[in-house]
Design goal:
With 246 residues, this protein is α/β, with parallel strands linked by helices. The protein has one domain: 3-Layer(aba) Sandwich (Rossmann fold), CATH 3.40.50.10310. A four-stranded parallel beta sheet has the order 2-1-3-4, with helices on both faces. The longest helix has 23 residues. The radius of gyration is 18 Å and the shape is globular. It binds nickel (II) ion.
Length: 246
């Protein structure tokens, strides 16, 4: 059930019975030679919509423009400052709460969104929940099984697989193995704490950050998508029921 495809009377009727809504957050940024610019937004939006269908929950329009300054040397990337993104999130949440939504489930698809999301929603913990689609154990079992360390950090085979299943497969020869990143590097750069745009493109010339995107297949993407939808739907249901959750 999409908010943007509903009438105001349908929203009013929904709010008579329920007060939960998904708010997907993604990015508009390069995702390597075979990843779509909208990968993060598409994954978050599709999984939120799929989870919403499983449990009859409404889904707000995806916030697609977000911070990705480190990718601005790659064509197609559009980056907001963390401050602007935070204000957009804050005012969107205000708007939803104004109408009576009391459980706003932010389903995230982009690492650099997490810090500004946590900052801006810190004092709304009881009404806002922040989760990324890769946070769930059943999803990670599949990621580890198929990709292991080649999941990497950016243009991951898992996110590419989901967009292949749902949108488009970019035809390309098998890509070379990317640089293998150390556990220390990944820990230090978690949440997309990368350097300047120039440094980032010089260090990772084709845009992949330790991720072997070519391992992705649409079949895996379908299984990842369905598994993520199920996990997210269960977590959403617990959140709106007010249960204690991790
Ligand atoms: Ni991504």
């Amino acid at each position: 059930m999409r908010l943007d495809l509903s009438t105001w009377q349908e929203v009013e009727h929904y709010l008579d019975e329920r007060d939960g809504i998904f708010l997907p957050t993604g990015s508009i940024e390069q995702h390597g030679p075979i990843g779509l610019i909208g990968t993060d937004s598409l994954c978050a939006q599709d999984i939120a919509t799929g989870a919403g269908e499983l449990i009859g929950a409404m889904v707000a329009p995806t916030i697609q423009y977000t911070p990705a300054p480190f990718n601005m040397s790659f064509p197609g990337t559009v980056s907001l400052s963390a401050e602007t993104f935070g204000r957009v999130v804050d005012e969107v949440v205000d708007g939803l709460m104004h109408h009576g939504f009391r459980h706003i489930y932010v389903l995230n698809g982009h690492g650099a969104n997490l810090e500004p999301l946590r900052n801006v929603l810190a004092d709304r913990a009881e009404c806002c929940r922040i989760k990324s689609w890769w946070d769930f154990a059943p999803v990670n079992v599949l990621r580890r099984k198929w990709y292991g360390d080649w999941e990497g950090m950016h243009a991951t085979p898992s996110e590419v697989a989901i967009t292949q299943a749902r949108h488009r497969v970019v035809l390309h020869e098998m890509l070379d193995l990317p640089e293998r990143l150390s556990a220390v590097y990944m820990a230090e750069h978690a949440g997309d704490r990368h350097g300047s745009a120039e440094e980032h493109r010089a260090r990772f010339p084709d845009g992949r950050v330790g991720s072997h995107s070519s391992l992705a297949t649409p079949e895996q993407g379908r299984e990842l998508y369905e598994t993520a939808c199920q996990s997210v739907a269960e977590d959403f249901a617990q959140f709106v029921a007010g249960q204690t959750i991790s």
